[in-house]
Design goal:
Elements: E1 2-6, H1 12-21, E2 26-31, H2 34-46, E3 53-57, E4 69-75, H3 84-94, E5 95-106, H4 112-124, E6 127-131, E7 138-145
Parallel strand pairs: 1-2, 1-4, 2-3, 4-5
Antiparallel strand pairs: 5-7, 6-7
The structure holds S-adenosylmethionine.
């Protein structure tokens, strides 16, 4: 699988995802802070995973990838994005049909009304809600791009 960890920060999820995708897979760890991407790069080298983790520098308003994705993770980052609808639309365009998008937001920063509004925007750009998994301290949804 080709997996995007968008807003990867120091790469906690990216490293775990790199183990899950195996030797044939690829994780793209993307963030707008070069400092965070350097952390991810160093940790990937230390843990012997650098061949399956690529780092990618985003701009504030565009992810800017060419790859087709099977799965995307946005862990505790969506509330930081300036235009959520534009961002969701770009993720939707990068995913293959049937691709999945896992979003979790911190309850402390994102109330239920704001989270429901995010899900409504996701449906507006062509996602379906596949599941609402439980994540500790999080408001979470697994979205699916129509086939
Ligand atoms: C709260 S941190 C979470 C980091 C990581 N996902 C984790 O759970 O440890 C949010 C991260 O999202 C990044 N970020 C915010 N807006 C972004 C955007 N528009 N595109 C890419 N990354 C963004 C920030 O630079 C930061 O590293």
């Amino acid at each position: 699988m080709t997996v995007l960890d968008v807003g990867c920060g120091a790469g906690f999820a990216s490293l775990g995802l790199a183990r899950l995708v195996g030797e044939e897979g690829l994780v793209i760890a993307a963030d707008l802070q070069p400092r965070m991407l350097n952390f991810v790069k160093e940790r990937a080298i230390r843990e012997g995973l650098s061949n399956r983790i690529h780092i990618h520098l985003c701009s504030h308003d565009r992810i800017g990838l060419q790859e087709e994705l099977d799965f995307t993770v946005a862990f505790f980052m969506l509330h930081e994005v300036p235009d959520i609808q534009v961002f969701l639309k770009e993720i939707n365009s990068l995913l293959k049909p049937g691709g999945r998008f896992f979003i979790t937001e911190p309850k402390i920063h994102v109330g239920l009304i704001a989270f429901n509004e995010m899900m409504r925007k996701a449906e507006d750009v062509g996602f379906e809600i596949a599941e609402k998994p439980r994540v500790r301290f999080g408001r979470t949804v697994l979205l699916s791009k129509s086939e």
